[in-house]
Design brief:
mainly alpha; 5 helices
Length: 116
């Protein structure tokens, strides 16, 4: 149930960001749900491999290269999903940053409710 709620929250935030950011286009809410599922799958399977392969450059840039990895995952999701389009790397970077910030704030409130 928790996984489903995270997918729904991520898709709502992504769909909302598509209205705010001109370079991000999500056609329907179903496309946003598919985007959230694809991002969860890519983050679970591909991101750890990319982190290990780029570990030296990540250390050299004090972890800032992880933002590039996140943007790359967004661009890769763009290739897999028909109803999702990103205009370029910088839009993907901004989208990944905002998506991470907003969802982490929302998940933090969820964790605080669980502690009570």
């Amino acid at each position: 149930m928790k996984f489903i709620m995270r997918i729904v929250v991520t898709s709502i935030v992504a769909f909302g960001l598509s209205y705010i950011l001109n370079g991000i286009k999500i056609d329907t809410f179903w496309s946003a749900i598919i985007l959230a599922l694809v991002l969860a799958l890519l983050n679970a399977l591909l991101k750890p491999i990319l982190i290990i392969l780029t570990f030296p450059i990540t250390i050299f840039t004090f972890g800032l290269f992880l933002f590039v990895i996140n943007a790359g995952i967004i661009l890769l999701a763009d290739k897999f999903i028909d109803g999702f389009h990103v205009d370029g790397f910088w839009w993907a970077l901004l989208f990944s940053l905002l998506l991470s910030i907003v969802t982490s704030i929302l998940y933090k409130e969820d964790r605080e409710k669980e502690k009570s």
